[in-house]
Design a protein that fits this description.
The protein has 18 helices and 26 strands. The strands form 7 sheets. The protein has a 6-stranded mixed beta sheet with strand order 9-14-13-12-10-11, with helices on both faces. The protein has a 5-stranded parallel beta sheet with strand order 1-2-3-5-8. It folds into 3 domains: 7-347, Alpha-Beta Barrel (TIM Barrel); 366-622, Glycoside hydrolase family 3 C-terminal domain (Rossmann fold); 672-807, Immunoglobulin-like (Sandwich), CATH 2.60.40. Helix 15 (552-564) links the parallel strand 12 and strand 13 (568-574). 58% of the residues are buried. It is α/β, with parallel strands linked by helices. Helix 6 runs parallel beside helix 7 (229-245) and helix 13 (444-455) crosses helix 16 (602-610). The chain binds 2-acetamido-2-deoxy-beta-D-glucopyranose (NAG) (12 copies). One 2-acetamido-2-deoxy-beta-D-glucopyranose (NAG) binds at residues 226, 228-229, 232, 258-259, 268-269. Its EC number is 3.2.1.21. GO terms for molecular function: beta-glucosidase activity.
Length: 809
């Protein structure tokens, strides 16, 4: 049973039992008063009703019952059932269960009858707020239908301080603004579906190496991140503002340390930044091993923790001797239940919690979202000689293990302590907490074979990155044949011998005409095909960082095909930035399609783009460098990780230091072309801009006026090509020097469908926060006086129109 408490009924019950009056509790001496919800210093806005219900429920509890709730227990006297937590923003993930089950018992490997959605990093490549909302709401509805109340997601961070970070597949891109928009949308979508969004990881948990004290990482673990206050706000805390504003009811603090203190026991981080500055009203819960101490965690701001530390006796003794406070305990209990009421989980309609193999099908028509979003996320990086879209090619050859299924799938087992660097099969989901529960998986080979069967295309494949004819010479094992081919007899059974004609340099096909060796090989297949498709991937995930940003076997495969085929199309699916310079300038490589891990419809999404059923519009959420050394931040190998680069990660670094990328942040081609004209930028709230600092009160999401529009920009975008298409228009802002900001920063994006020959007016609403910098001395977001340059274009380095606006004197 879930509590069906309402405020009036609860108030009537207050005199009964050992009720505590939360609003009359004394202020804690160890925490800022704002971090206690009952202090009233954070205006709760649309959380007020939920707060009233939560406070009323808690008011009926004894301290032991409150402790039961904050340690994940149920209290039958008020019908409170422990919340069920679950990983997965890409599907209901099976690796870990909080709540009644210990998270460390990894007994499940996947949920059944759920959808395998695109990873968040792929979703970010759509640059489409509606698609983000649609997918994340569908994800949350599946959690709801399985009886979960809290997701360990969405994931904002690791943000991507370094491209070698192992876990970027789970995040919403490497730009704080893009990431923040997606994170806020995720928090809202989850809440709208009746699920408490548990955003993670808070904060500066930017790499896997030396992450986990309890694991085998190293005696340097967990590492301690140190970022100055300006960087903290402008790069890392930024997206959590959006998450809190979007309705996030829970936050997962990281395993790692900030300034030498564990994140889950760090008062500056949790009570200060999160609960006070951002006005976060929900509960903070720990990543594995994040809690090590009773009072440092409780006073530091952790609200949900282990009964090993938070025993009745210990916490009560702490209250009695002043180490801990009644107000803080009450606040913890309120924060544990407030999100439940906020998202309406008390309305009595949620289905019962079910285990991973129950036949409870929650998928609805979500596969259409997966296919649509997958196609919308794919980024066309190169397209010459009209290679794409394909039009009934006569012959096609597929190369690489990533084109087809892994031998046993689709729910392959990935270790949480490191996977990769590549995957020998089609990769459409991540690992660790980013692991997908696939009900099925459409591979490119399957989707392209279906197309071929309809188009009359002859299709063949070599689903191996390193196959050479000599490898298997004379021993069969190729094309399904198993006989002794040197004997001159046909293999047993009819096999599936490819009916290929002889290629340049090739010999007769063994087993078919008494030949003596197998010579079909990658060059041979490449020579004979009108279209050569090479499939490559990059894999990493929770528990280990990336060891490479390119892969020799795969790059050799691409080069070998390209040497023999003047129409080589490369498809990349990757967890993060993947370097392409080994072959990108080869003229025989006519097209490159680059994407994240896009879920169960991967092959169909790809085919939609390759054949032009969908005009590609995906954009890079990170910079693809020419060389590894072009990136400025590597994996930190010491106990203290100093973020000395400050705000200068990804394109902010490339722009400041004039490093030319291979493909810049925001880049992506279309099958049509767009013109930009008539940019107009208007100050819409000059009164607000006249004030250096925000004047609004503290509310959920920070000072209220940080969210107010102050400037509006609009631009005309014309599709002057021959096909309809979506254009992702991007607004970048250059601040006055006094603000000490990167060269330019993304501050708006809109994906707009524009038909061939038509134009559209695209409008960007710029909020006060979008033109503010963090004033360390004032400890406020501030507006610098001076000239702001607003530019709109198709990428961070393809700015088409710009206008300067003067703010202040
Ligand atoms: C709680 O305490 C406040 C402040 O002392 C008081 O106004 C309020 O009536 C009390 N509420 C209950 C239910 O006792
Ligand atoms: C808590 O502290 C705040 C700020 O100092 C004050 O306004 C409020 O009245 C205090 N609340 C209680 C219950 O003492
Ligand atoms: C708890 O649920 C039961 C069964 O629905 C109900 O009879 C009881 O009144 C509820 N108790 C409270 C305190 O809400
Ligand atoms: C209860 O909440 C869920 C999730 O928001 C919603 O779908 C459902 O319609 C609500 N039920 C009622 C009776 O309001
Ligand atoms: C961590 O320390 C740095 C350097 O001393 C300081 O600038 C920053 O504000 C501190 N951050 C937190 C969250 O305390
Ligand atoms: C606290 O006491 C309650 C009631 O006796 C008990 O059910 C619960 O398990 C205890 N919690 C802890 C963390 O010891
Ligand atoms: C208060 O009690 C707690 C729990 O027993 C204990 O850990 C702590 O040292 C005590 N503090 C003081 C100041 O006595
Ligand atoms: C690919 O081919 C190589 C060389 O024949 C072989 O060692 C490897 O096992 C094959 N990989 C797969 C996934 O079949
Ligand atoms: C294949 O057949 C030849 C000729 O009969 C024989 O010498 C050789 O040992 C056979 N090889 C294998 C692997 O069976
Ligand atoms: C092999 O193919 C031939 C011709 O299609 C057929 O007659 C024969 O039955 C097949 N043999 C086997 C073992 O499938
Ligand atoms: C391009 O492909 C053709 C075969 O179509 C080959 O002759 C040529 O050498 C290739 N060029 C490169 C640069 O690999
Ligand atoms: C690619 O090679 C094919 C076959 O050799 C040839 O017909 C075609 O013209 C070549 N295309 C280009 C762009 O060189």
């Amino acid at each position: 049973m879930r509590p069906t408490i309402n405020v009036v009924a609860a108030a009537l019950l207050l005199p009964l039992g050992a009720a505590q009056n939360t609003t009359s509790s004394t202020n804690t001496t160890t925490s800022t008063s704002e971090a206690i919800l009952s202090s009233g210093e954070v205006s709760l806005g649309d959380w007020a009703d939920a707060y009233a219900k939560a406070a009323a429920l808690v008011a009926q509890l004894t301290n032991e019952e409150k402790i039961t709730i904050i340690t994940g227990g149920s209290v039958s006297s008020v019908n409170w059932t422990a919340l069920e937590f679950k990983d997965g923003t890409q599907s209901v993930q099976g690796m870990a269960v909080y709540g009644s089950t210990s998270r460390t018992s990894l007994t499940e490997t996947g949920y059944d009858y759920v959808t395998g959605f695109a990873e968040s990093s792929a979703l970010a490549m759509t640059w489409d707020k509606t698609l983000m909302y649609d997918q994340l709401k569908a994800v949350a509805l599946e959690f709801y239908g399985k009886g979960f109340q809290v997701t360990n997601g969405p994931t904002s961070q690791p943000l991507g301080r370094t491209p070698w970070g192992g876990r970027l597949v789970e995040t919403l891109g490497q730009d704080p603004y893009l990431n923040g928009i997606g994170f806020g949308i995720g928090a809202k979508a989850f809440s709208d579906a009746g699920i408490v969004a548990g955003g993670k990881h808070f904060l500066l948990n930017e790499q896997e190496t030396n992450r986990q004290a309890s694991g085998s990482d190293s005696d340097l673990a967990p590492y301690s991140s140190v970022a100055d206050d300006k960087t903290m706000h402008e790069t890392y805390l930024w997206s959590f503002y959006d998450g809190v504003k979007g309705g996030m009811g829970a936050v997962m603090c990281a395993m790692t340390k900030v300034n030498g203190t564990l994140s889950c026991e760090n008062e500056d981080l949790l009570q200060g930044l999160l609960k006070t500055e951002l006005g976060f009203p929900g509960l903070v819960f720990p990543d594995v091993g994040g809690q090590t101490n009773a009072f440092e965690s409780a006073n530091g701001g952790l609200d949900y923790g282990s009964s090993t530390y938070w025993t009745n006796a210990t916490l009560q003794a702490g209250i009695d001797n002043g180490t801990f406070t009644q107000a803080r305990l009450d606040d913890m209990a309120v924060r544990n239940v407030i999100g439940y009421f906020k998202v309406g989980l008390d309305n009595g309609t949620q289905p019962e919690y079910v285990g991973s193999d129950a036949y409870v099908d929650v998928r609805g028509n979500h596969s259409t979202i997966v296919r649509t979003n997958g196609a919308a996320s794919l980024v066309l990086l190169k397209n010459t000689n009209n290679a794409l879209p394909l039009s009934k090619p006569k012959s096609m050859a597929l190369f690489g293990s990533h084109a087809g299924p892994v031998m046993a799938g689709p729910n392959y087992y990935f270790s949480v302590q490191g996977s990769g660097p590549t995957y020998e099969g089609h990769l459409a989901g991540g690992s660790g907490s980013g692991q997908t529960s696939f009900p099925y998986l459409i591979t490119p080979q399957q989707a392209l074979t279906t197309k071929a069967s309809l188009d009359g295309t002859m299709i063949r494949w070599i689903l191996n990155n390193t196959y050479t004819s000599s490898t298997d010479s004379g021993s069969g094992g190729f094309g399904g044949m198993t006989g002794n081919t040197t004997s001159g007899t046909a293999p047993s059974g009819n096999g599936t011998a490819p009916s290929l004609s002889k290629r340049a340099g090739g010999a007769a096909i063994a087993g078919l005409s008494g030949g003596t060796s197998l010579t079909q090989d990658i060059p041979d297949y490449a020579t004979g095909a009108e279209v050569c498709m090479v499939f490559i991937n990059a894999l990493s995930g929770e528990g280990a960082d990336r060891t490479e940003l390119r892969n020799t076997d795969q790059d050799d495969l691409v080069s070998t095909v390209a040497e023999n085929c003047n129409n080589t199309i490369v498809v990349v699916n990757t967890v993060g930035a993947r370097l392409l310079d080994a072959w990108i300038e080869n003229d025989n490589i006519t097209a490159v399609v680059y994407g994240g891990l896009v879920g169960q419809e991967s092959g169909n999404s790809l085919a939609d783009v390759l054949y032009g059923d969908v005009n590609p519009s995906g954009r890079l959420p990170h910079t693809i460098a020419k060389n590894e050394s072009d990136y400025n931040v590597e994996i930190c190998e010491t106990a203290v990780c100093n973020f000395t680069e400050g705000n200068y990660i990804d394109y902010r670094y490339f722009d400041k230091y004039n490093v030319t990328p291979r493909y810049e942040f925001g880049y992506g081609l279309s099958y049509t072309t767009f013109d930009y004209s008539d940019l107009t930028v208007n100050i819409t709230n000059s009164t607000a801009l006249a004030s250096t600092y925000p004047t609004g009160g503290l509310a959920v999401g920070g000072k209220t006026d940080l969210w107010d529009e102050v400037i509006s920009a609009s631009v005309t975008v014309a599709n002057n090509g021959t096909v309809d298409g979506n254009e992702v228009s991007q607004l970048y802002v250059e601040y006055p020097t006094a603000a000490d900001q990167p060269v330019r920063q993304l501050r708006g994006f809109e994906r707009t469908l524009i038909s061939s020959g038509s134009s559209a007016t695209v409008t960007f609403s710029v909020r006060r926060r979008d033109v503010s910098f963090w004033d360390v001395a004032a400890q406020e977001w501030a507006i610098a006086s001076g000239n702001y340059v607003f530019s709109v274009g198709a990428s961070s380095r393809d700015l088409r129109v710009s206008q300067t606006v003067t703010v202040g004197t």
